[in-house]
Amino acid sequence: MRAVRLTGAGQIAVEQLPLPEPGPGQIRIRLEGCGVCASNLEPWAGPDWMTFPTEPGGLGHEGWGRIDALGTDVADLREGQRVAFLGQRGYATHEVVEAAMVVPLPDSIAGPFPGEPFACAMNIFRRSGIGQGDRVAIIGIGFLGAVLTRLAANVGAEVIAISRRPSSLALARQMGAARTVPMEDHHAIIGQVSDLTDGRFCDVVIEAVGKQWPLDLAGEIVAEGGRLVVAGYHQDGPRQVNMQNWNWRGINVVNAHERRPEVYLQGLRDAIAAIEAGRLDPAPLLTHVFPLEALDQALDATRDKPEGLVKAYVTCA
């Protein structure tokens, strides 16, 4: 097998390794590809807490592929079956995972499918409690924000999409956003959202950036008694919040990240069902593809966000 290790800040190495064998209750997957997650960027930058090199394939957790070996005590799966799965070593041609962490893919999903981030989006949407007629602001229209825009529009919510890049705002409109607001000036955004909502602001605000300013902004545009949903991954240090404002508005704050595998797997099944039903289309969201050996370029692109990038992935075959 081939596997990539991160060997230092901004550096990778591709290694040839023996093919791993699955143990009892495990399967081996020959990966077709693996999505690149923004959560990889902090380790990629080489912070003090990071240890190099990573394990072979390490940090890759958005993989999909075909089963090519079964361990003992594995039922209801077969060799050759195409699957998405929860794993942590997907920057490689092969990965061994527990059979319980696998969800089969239907024939209707024939293209690339990084299942984990779609599952993440489905779980965030469920915990957001968005319903018909809700006014919803989504701050940050990358992959996650775009999926959430589509899901909210599907149930009849009125979505205000707030993002920096013109291509992101265009994607939000494609996904069903009723209004778009450039993410430029803090007070101007508050004024525009106030105007768009007749001064009532938004029933639900989803912060999907993972930085201090968007979190501050979210607290300013949520309605009294509304919900502020933290979907961004805040991994670069502590945050401060305006608790006086949060108290006064009486808002509900939801940290929408999930860590329970069984909930993630249900989110993955829900994403597959949404795609099969035509409620969600992965194609416009998977925009930049790189070979496994160019993982460094894929990570740089995820960090630098060239115009039009939504999600990058690497091909592993």
From TrEMBL:
Keywords: Metal-binding, Oxidoreductase, Zinc
Pfam families membership: ADH_N, ADH_zinc_N
InterPro entries: ADH-like_C (IPR013149), ADH-like_N (IPR013154), ADH_Zn_CS (IPR002328), ER (IPR020843), GroES-like_sf (IPR011032), NAD(P)-bd_dom_sf (IPR036291), Zn_alcohol_dh (IPR050129)
Enoyl reductase (ER) domain ranges (all copies): 8-299
Needed cofactors: Zn(2+)
Domain of life: Bacteria
SMART domains: PKS_ER
Family designation: Belongs to the zinc-containing alcohol dehydrogenase family.
Name by which UniProt lists this protein: Zinc-binding dehydrogenase
Protein species of origin: Paracoccus aerius
